[in-house]
Amino acid sequence: MSPRKTVSTCLAVSIVLLASACATTSDPYTREERASRTAQGAAIGAGVGAVIGAITGGDRLERAAIGAGIGALSGAAIGSYMDRQEAELRRQLEGTGVSVTRRDDEIILNMPGSVTFDLDSASLRPEFFEVLNSVALVLEKYRKTVLVIDGHTDSTGSRDYNMALSRRRAEAVGDYLVAQDVDPVRLATYGYGPDHPVASNESESGRQANRRVELTLMPVTAD
User: Fold this and answer.
1) At 99, phi and psi to the nearest 5?
2) Local structure of residue 182 (DSSP, 8 states)
């Protein structure tokens, strides 16, 4: 069952993910040590609130997408569709600094702030445009998905500043994808500031991991 089906399922998944967050493995995309696939599956946020927010946003987007005439998936077709999309994203993004994580029927793209933005900036780095162009091409090929874009920061600076920065960064990614012809009805952007870290803010490596934009791809289902 997808974790989008019920909030109670979401909570249970979150607890399991948090319990395994200390494991690490080599990341083929960044070439660095990172959290294990299970821990990275919690990348929408180590807190339950962000996960619930993504689920709620995904459900709303699904309804909007169906209303806009975007076809829905059902049964075994869901997993197969997401499998193919995941494989293509992995091919496109290997070595770019963007990691791809699968969680049930969802695909999570983790875009580190150090790769996509300059420090304290919400302007995308020009050298990252080609990467986002590749993402947009896959998204256009696999249109039966919706996308929740979440911005996160470290805890340096005021919470209000970080909340605004995280929103602007999520919106910058969303705006760029829309400019590449991704249908805006499929997108929702949120900013969580420092509220949902995936690492300790006591170290520079931890703060760097927390500065990120995450794109969660969810299938449009007929259920």
Assistant:
1) -95, 155
2) -
What is the C-alpha separation between 122 and 106, in angstroms, rounded? Answer: 26
Q: Which two tokens stand for residue 108?
A: 């999570």
Q: Smallest Cα–Cα separation from 128: which of 168, 191, 173, 174? A: 173
Angle formed at CA 18 by CA 148 and CA 101, multiple of 5 degrees? 45
Q: Give pLDDT tens digits for 139-175.
A: 999 999 999 999 999 999 999 999 999 999 999 999 9
Domain that holds residue 164: 7-219
Q: For the chain, what is the domain count?
A: 1
Question: To the nearest whole percent, how much of the chain has pLDDT over 90?
Answer: 57
Structural domain includes residue 1: no
CATH number, domain with residue 112: 3.30.1330.60
Flag whether 78 is in a domain. Answer: yes
